[in-house]
Design brief:
The chain has about 290 residues and is α+β, with helices and mostly antiparallel strands. It is built from 14 helices and five strands. It has a five-stranded antiparallel sheet.
Length: about 290
């Protein structure tokens, strides 16, 4: 990922989405492009147009944290976007290496003790890396994501499944939302480790094979793993409305643990009980 190009496209896309009204400016006059003008961002952020134009062209080396915060404020960044901009600035200043994960080869599995911990969880639980590889799951998590394990020749990857497997449209009833989150997660990962060749290869593959992915990748959206409710449709037990909690694993940088749970005595709770019964009859390797 070319840092200057990433900075330019990220800031340009954020500027285009902020309306004059949102920035407290009059909307009078014909605008050739959506969003704010560079001169308006510069004025609101308290800097010259020339300086802001230099920043937006990708020159973040030497730019102070105060200037970055001012730009983030004017462009109405959320926490994920602000963190992404700060990482891009650190990369431009040569500090990105301090933030990157170890360059050790990335294994396809997890530590045995982490798998033991997963197996001790009684609701679906999975571990995913920054490239959306589904590295590990407990038995119920594997049963829930059975579609991703349908082809044993291809290691399961959530992004590849979302955009290249027709089963994803059934598994994710709100497919567009999942697609947006998937791409935003990958874009965030690219900001954290812009030299991850595996991630580059995945993005290249999906950009080539999926118009839906390519369009979303160009939007430069980022996000932070969190919590909420996701809806799924499992081919055996039907609809599932699952609360989820995602957390980064301190002992394994770059890995995220997600635990799913159903509201007690809800239709989803009964469906999970049925899924557990079905999973008990399915060999662990399937």
């Amino acid at each position: 990922m070319d840092n200057r190009v990433e900075v330019r496209e990220f800031l340009t896309s954020r500027r285009a989405r902020v309306t004059p009204e949102q920035a407290g400016l009059p909307a009078a006059g014909q605008r050739r492009v959506p969003g704010l003008r560079r001169s308006e961002v510069a004025a609101l952020a308290g800097m010259s147009v020339e300086y802001y134009a230099k920043v937006e062209r990708g020159s973040l080396a030497g730019v102070s944290a105060g200037v970055l915060e001012a730009i983030a404020r004017v462009l109405r960044f959320d926490d994920a976007e602000r963190a992404h901009l700060m990482r891009l600035a650190q990369e431009a200043n040569g500090g990105g290496a301090l933030l990157r994960p170890s360059r050790r080869p990335k294994a396809r599995g997890v530590r045995p003790s982490l798998q033991w911990a997963l197996d001790a969880i009684t609701t679906p639980a999975i571990v995913v890396n920054n490239r959306a590889d589904l590295l590990a799951a407990n038995h119920l998590g594997r049963a829930m994501h059975a579609d991703l394990y349908a082809d044993p020749a291809n290691p399961p990857n959530l992004a590849r499944f979302t955009f290249l497997d027709s089963a994803a449209r059934r598994f994710y009833p709100d497919w567009s939302r999942f697609a947006d989150m998937s791409v935003a997660n990958l874009r965030t990962a690219a900001g954290i480790d812009p030299h991850d060749k595996g991630l580059h290869d995945l993005v290249g593959e999906l950009s080539t094979r999926s118009d839906e992915f390519r369009r979303r990748w160009g939007a430069h959206n980022v996000r932070i793993h969190g919590a909420g409710v996701k809806h799924f449709h499992h081919h055996v037990v039907g609809d599932l409305a699952l609360a989820y909690e995602s957390m980064d694993l301190q002992g394994d940088p770059g890995l995220t643990l997600t635990i799913y749970a159903a509201e007690p005595d809800s239709p989803t709770a009964h469906a999970l009980a049925l899924l557990a019964s079905w999973a008990a009859d399915v060999p662990a390797g399937r």
